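Exercise 7.
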Amino acid sequence: MAWQRIRFEITEDASPGVDGSRYAYTPTLGAFTAVVGANGDILITEDRLRTAMLMAALGRVVLEDELDRLLGKQWDEELESFRYAGEGAPVRWLHAAV
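Solution. The predicted structure, written as tokens, is:
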């Protein structure tokens, strides 16, 4: 992915019985993907939490930093300056045709 000038964030809302997704990309951080629950929270699986805890216990990572990475904190911070929300701001809603 040699996209040096593109940044994006795509969120798929959850629907009944199906969790949503969040995708983000920045040239400096690369790609980020997460599962999003019905209330909008990022969901981290048990295996990913256990791995983060093990890596922290072994001294390979700082647990707080690893949890921030799993939650996409760096992507949020880098993309924040590109977000625009205000009265009259254009919003495009995409709907799946079933």
